[in-house]
Amino acid sequence: MAKRRLTQQQQRRIQGNQQQRIARAKHDEAEQILDSPEQSGLVIANYGKQLVIETADAEHILCRSKQNLGSVVCGDQVIYQTSEEEQRGLIVAILPRRSFLSRPGFAGKIKAIAANIDRIFIVTAAIPELNEGMLDRYLVAAEQNELEAIIVFNKLDLLDEQQRAEIETRLCLYRELGYKVIYTSSKLEHGLEQLLQELEQYTSIMVGQSGVGKSSLIQQLLPATEIRIGEISEATGKGAHTTTTSRLYHLDSGGDLIDSPGVREFGITEISSEELTAAFREFRPVLGHCQFRNCDHLEQSAGCAIVAAISTGDVSKQRYLSYLRIRESLVAD
C-alpha cells in the first residue's frame, strides 16, 4: 500500500510543531540552568557556539550564550549561571566593554575577535613577506579602537645582514610615527624579554597574517603550555592556519595575552571616511587646513593639505597610497 502524501499545509504544520517543541526544549534547558545564582567570569576560549569561562576560583566551565547576546569573545567579562547536575553553564549577560576588536566576516557580517584589550601586537615576519598594506589596516583598527599598537617583526633568523637592514629601513617609517617595533626570533629566543616587558600588566592580543609565527612566540613565552605550531604552506608561500580559535593565556610575568587565528587579509569595519583619515597619525596635524571644508583628500583634490604634506615630506607617499586603497575598499563594500 503506497504511503499517503502530505499536503504542503500539513507539512508546514508538522514543521511548525517541531520548531515549537525544539524552542520549548531549549527554554526548559535554559530554565533548569537559570535556577542557580548568577556569577561573573572571564571568557578565555571561543570554540564557536561553545565558550570556556574562567571563574573567580580559577576553574574552567564550558558554556553557551543566550542567543540575544550577540557575539561573546575572548576577554569578555560575563554573567553566567550553571546547572547543578553537570559542569556546564549559560552566559546570560555581557558586562560593559572598554574596547572591542572586530573584522569583516563572510556575507558582510562582522566577525568579533576580542574584547577588553589594551594593546594589539601586530606580528609580521620574514616569511610570509612583510605586507605594509595589511600592517596599515591593523594600525587603523588600533587607532579606531584607541588601542596601543606595537609592531613585532618575527623570524629574524631567516634574514642576512643586508635583508635585515632593508626591513629596518622599511619599518623605520613606523618608528618615526611613534609605533614601537620589536624584532624577535623564536628559534634564537631573540627579543622575547623585551616582548614580555611590553606585555606585562596589560591585556593584549597578537594578530597577523597566517604563518608569521604568533603561536611559536607564545609557546616561547609560555613554555609550560602546549600550543599547536604550524608550517608555512610550501605550495602558496602563505601561512597555514594553526590557531583556529581565540584563546586567552595568563602570563607568569603578569598580563594576559590572546592568541587569535591568522588571516589571509584583514579588513576594517564600521569606520567613516573622517575616522579613517584621522586614524593615520601623520595626517592629524594638517586636518582642517585644506582649502575646502568638504575636501575628500584624493590626489586630484585642489588645495588638499594632506597631499601638500607629501611634497614637504611630512606624509609618506607609501602611507598615503595605503590610505587610498583602504578608502577605496570601504567604498566597494
Please tell me about this protein's structure.
- By secondary structure, the chain is α/β, with parallel strands linked by helices.
- It folds into 3 domains: about 35-95, Nucleic acid-binding proteins (OB fold (Dihydrolipoamide Acetyltransferase, E2P)); about 100-260, Rossmann fold (3-Layer(aba) Sandwich), CATH 3.40.50; about 275-330, Ribonucleotide Reductase Protein R1, domain 1 (Orthogonal Bundle).
- It contains 8 helices and 13 strands.
- A hairpin with a 5-residue loop joins strand 6 and strand 7.
- The longest helix is centred in the first third of the chain and has 26 residues, at about 10-35.
Could you name the key traits of this structure?
333 residues, alpha/beta, OB fold (Dihydrolipoamide Acetyltransferase, E2P), Rossmann fold, Ribonucleotide Reductase Protein R1, domain 1, 13 strands, 30% helix
Provide a brief overview of the structure.
The protein is an alpha/beta fold and 333 residues long. 30% of the residues lie in helices and 23% in strands.
Describe the SSE topology.
Elements: H1 8-33, E1 39-47, E2 50-54, E3 60-65, E4 77-82, E5 88-94, E6 100-104, E7 110-115, E8 119-125, H2 132-144, E9 148-154, H3 161-176, E10 180-183, H4 192-199, E11 203-208, H5 214-221, E12 247-250, E13 256-259, H6 273-278, H7 305-312, H8 317-332
Parallel strand pairs: 3-5, 8-9, 8-11, 9-10, 11-13
Antiparallel strand pairs: 1-2, 1-4, 2-3, 4-5, 6-7, 12-13
Helix pairs in contact: 2-8
